[in-house]
Amino acid sequence: MTDFDVHPEHVAHPEYPVNPAERAKHPEHQVLRVFCGPGGSGGNALGVVLDGAAVPGRTERAALAVELGFSETVFLDDAARGTVDIHTPSVRLPFAGHPLVGLAWLLHDLGRPPRTLRPPAGEVAVTYDGEITWVRGRAAWVTARRTERYASVTDVDALPAPPPGEGWLYAWAWQDEAAGVVRARAFPRRGDAIVEDEATGAAALLLTHELGRPLDIRQGTGSQILTRPHPDGTIEVGGRVRADTP
Question: CA Rg, the chain, in Å?
Fold first, then answer.
């Protein structure tokens, strides 16, 4: 098994509407793939609305998140301050890794790299290192997620989607413990259309906090999440981002 040889049927990938009439119904937004593997494989689809004022209400934002069908959609409410709002198809989140990494990358690509983003949880520092975009958060900001270690990568890959049970599950096993390489799969199990999350920055941050070491996480069908803890208790989550033009 290579680093990214996993089973595509394990992960639900919401499809972006290809019918131009369907696209026209949605406010202007960008679609990205966040936490791509080397060469651009994998990555978790993200909807980005750069003009948050175009979708002003929580009800409207929740409806758009459902229509797009991605695991998260992020709205930029104040470009100068970096104020953002994050929605899944069923809940509003105070913090999430892949929307913040994706938005930070997009703003950098547009020539407006932010130093800080401000989701409801707090200030998130942003840095760039080559093709990796990093955001820094705290484990206390990660809500309602549980990690569970499995004996082997084979055991993680054999899990049904979703496994029996309730609540957000981040299933993981060491792929190479000495090198800090983890195989992981993520199951929101919250009753919406996201059966399995392709790449989950907040859960990666939580696992890094629990293990107390930098990690190289291989998740989904080819995604890669990098993490590194800091002495002040914050943890950076980073990865590659690609534009996903329908």
Answer: 17
Residue 124: enclosing H or E segment and its boundaries? Answer: strand 124-129
Q: Output the six-digit token pair for 21.
A: 């009439």
18: number of CA atoms within 13 Å, CB side? Answer: 2
Torsion of CA 235, 215, 206, 137, to 10 degrees: 20
pTM: 0.88
Cα separation, 77 vs 66, in Å, equals 19
Tokens 């705290």 correspond to 138
Residue with tokens 């929101």: 188
Question: Hey, what are 123's tokens?
Answer: 């200030």
Does domain 8-246 fall into CATH 3.10.310.10?
A: yes
Q: Around 78, how many Cα atoms within 13 Å sit in the side-chain half-sphere?
A: 9
Confidence class for position 25, pLDDT limits 50, 70, 90: low
Question: Amino acid letter at 177?
Answer: E
What is the tens place of the pLDDT at every residue in 138-153? 999 998 889 999 999 9
Its sign, for the CA torsion 245, 70, 131, 10, is negative
Question: What interhelical angle do 201-211 and 97-109 show, nearest 10?
Answer: 120
Query: Measuring CA to CA, which residue among 44, 38, 158 is closest to residue 101?
Result: 44
